[in-house]
């Protein structure tokens, strides 16, 4: 394999764009918007970010620190991230509260995905690599770790999620005209495959462009307030939809699914490049259809080998999972019984449960303990 040239360092603008993904869930905005970033210094692979915390003993300090390291560290060319935290002055604090209040008033738009929800966008270069299968089994796997999980089928042309989850329920609109997700396999599920075909709803969907459909789903679905993770099954390939997602949901992060075939990687790299250009961090690569273990224990690499590792290396992200070929994924997909739960001890079941745990480790749920309670007291005392 030819050596991979190290990418150039990001610009200050790139770092600020990445910091827009560091969100204070309760204040409902990002650290840049809230004026918490004091400085950004870039030198020789190291990026130093100054963060002014609302109060020195802010319980979210650890989370903001870790998020800053993760998001800035995901930028190509960054080797080390230093975070220098200081405490805000009284005046800065009241300015921040002013911004937070303003954002709270504006918050009805652009999306209804809670700011405390982690968003994992599952993407691939081309169709047929097992992106939807991965989205479903990953969502079930994360739910089985005790989290509240939603799945959004944004692959509106090839929607297969409802079948994989064994649901034929219809999404209904609540009194406030917002769509209520269907519950299936313990997940909140939204897909165009679940839209009622009554006239009003049909009208709403007619002629919707792909990225518009995503926008509709993000702005008009009433997700549970306590949703820990939202898994989005992205349409294959690159395009407007990645851009739309990073604009609407700056907290979204991408997981790229590929196969071991080395030739499949070029198009997957393009998807990742597109994500990075719109400042969406890439959590890692999942290699699907990795190998086949027959009943006699012999391993066959039917679709070649090394593709996942090669892509991960090229993107400078970890290979977060390798899913073997397993017929229980096909039958489970047809019968609505995801292998990650229903054949949990089979080869794919084990691999998906391991992947779910790894992604929860890399993208931990957001704590809901915040500084606002303490700040309110401080402000009262001012
Ligand atoms: P995509 O969303 O990338 O188009 P799908 O998830 O729909 O791909 O998968 C395509 C087909 O491959 C489906 O029939 C699915 O059951 C099958 N499949 C996916 N992953 C595996 C696997 N690891 N082993 C066996 N079959 C698989």
General description of the model:
This protein is of the alpha/beta class. The chain folds into two domains: 12-107, GMP Synthetase, Chain A, domain 3; 118-362, Rossmann fold (3-Layer(aba) Sandwich). The protein is 37% helix and 21% strand. Strand 1 and strand 2 (29-30) form a beta hairpin. The strands form five sheets. An eight-stranded mixed sheet has the order 10-11-7-12-6-13-14-17, sandwiched between helices. The chain is built from 14 helices and 17 strands. It has helices at 12-19, 61-73, 90-106, 131-143, 161-164, 199-205, 210-220, 240-248, 265-277, 307-315, 327-335, 339-342, 347-362, 372-381, and strands spanning 23-24, 29-30, 37-43, 46-53, 80-87, 118-124, 149-153, 172-173, 179-180, 182-184, 187-191, 229-233, 252-258, 282-288, 292-293, 299-300, 319-323. Helix 7 runs parallel beside helix 8 (240-248) and helix 9 (265-277) runs parallel beside helix 10. Bound molecules: adenosine-5'-diphosphate. Adenosine-5'-diphosphate is lined by residues 124, 127-133, 160, 288-289, 323, 325-326, 329-330, 333, 348. Residues 124, 127-133, 160, 288-289, 323, 325-326, 329-330, 333, 348 line the site of adenosine-5'-diphosphate.
